[in-house]
Design brief:
Mean pLDDT: 93
InterPro entries: NAD/GMP_synthase, NAD_synthase, NH(3)-dep_NAD(+)_synth, Rossmann-like_a/b/a_fold
Strand content: 5-15%
Shape: globular
Oligomer: single chain
CATH topology: Rossmann fold
Structural class: mainly alpha
Subunit structure: Homodimer.
Order of helices and strands: HEHEHEHHEHHHHHHH
Number of domains: 1
Helix content: 40-55%
Keywords: ATP-binding, Ligase, Magnesium, Metal-binding, NAD, Nucleotide-binding
GO molecular function: ATP binding; glutaminase activity; metal ion binding; NAD+ synthase (glutamine-hydrolyzing) activity; NAD+ synthase activity
Radius of gyration: 19 Å
Distance between the termini: 38 Å
CATH architecture: 3-Layer(aba) Sandwich
Low-confidence stretches: none
Family: Belongs to the NAD synthetase family.
């Protein structure tokens, strides 16, 4: 894993500066963070406290009735360790009426609905508290499309999006995130017993190493096989990246004018930030 090693002190310094700069240039000084009890949201919260101060961070817990009790316990460990304010909003009575209308919904659809409902809560609370939503998705999830569009992907600022999952774990240890949060099997906690790696069929360590060589080093399939990666694994991960490309961009706008948003009008200098 040496190729994925990071200088945690330097990364923390850069990301804290990023959070402070990006939040404040829009005229805000506080953020809301959805705390799931996982390593990603915990790491974002720890960075935010360093960047903005604990008085400017609000951690929001949003359990569903099937959420594991340890998820709440771990989220509250983060709240207590950082001394931040918190709010708990049970999304069960919000999503169950919709589930009742569609009793044939599979687990993926239900999970997507819950992820988007949680983002409704976060954006409402951000408005009520004059704050911005801080992102918690990592580079591995983004590249694989293992994240919900307009759900857990949604945010104003994301400090973790260029860190692979294994790098987030390393940074979390440096920041002092509780060890049991870092060590537990990653899970979106969308149904009982769900884990990311079981659902994906490979570990984050395995796929992060492949993604590093595929994306960062730009190795082709033949070169990846020379590195010891199985062709079926390379093909599957490559297809996941290709099929989820639409998730990594704002909706494409049909170009009609000379100054089309996101085609020509795209740089911060255009509007003074």
């Amino acid at each position: 894993m040496s190729e994925l090693s990071i200088n945690n002190e330097q990364v923390a310094h850069v990301l804290c500066g990023f959070i402070s700069s990006e939040i404040r240039k829009f005229g805000y000084d506080r953020v809301v963070v959805g705390l799931s009890g996982g390593v990603d949201s915990s790491t974002s919260a720890f960075l935010a406290v360093r960047a903005l101060g604990k008085e400017n961070i609000i951690g929001i817990l949003m359990p569903y009735k099937t959420s594991q009790p340890e998820s709440r316990d771990h989220a509250m460990q983060v709240v207590d360790a950082l001394g931040i304010r918190s709010l708990e909003v049970d999304i069960t009575p919000m999503v169950n009426p919709y589930f009742a209308l569609h009793p044939d919904m599979d687990r993926i659809r239900r999970g997507n609905v819950m992820a988007r409902e949680r983002m409704i809560v976060l954006y409402d609370q951000s408005h009520a508290r004059k704050a911005l939503v801080l992102g918690t998705s990592n580079k591995t999830e983004y590249l694989l499309g293992y994240t919900t569009l307009w759900g857990d992907m949604a945010c104003a600022v994301n400090p973790l999006g260029d860190l692979y999952k294994t790098q987030v774990r390393s940074l979390a240890r440096y920041l002092g995130v509780p060890g049991e949060i870092i060590r537990k099997p990653p899970s979106a906690d969308l149904w009982k017993g769900q884990t990311d790696e079981e659902e994906l069929g490979f570990t984050y360590e395995e796929v992060d190493r492949l993604l590093f060589h595929l994306i960062d080093k730009r190795l082709n399939p033949a070169e990846l096989e020379e590195k010891g990666f199985q062709s079926k694994f390379v093909k599957r991960v490559t297809e996941m990246i290709q099929k989820s490309q639409y998730k990594r961009h704002l909706p494409v706008i049909a170009k009609l004018s000379d100054r089309t948003i996101d085609w020509d009008f795209r740089y911060p200098r255009d509007w003074g930030a």
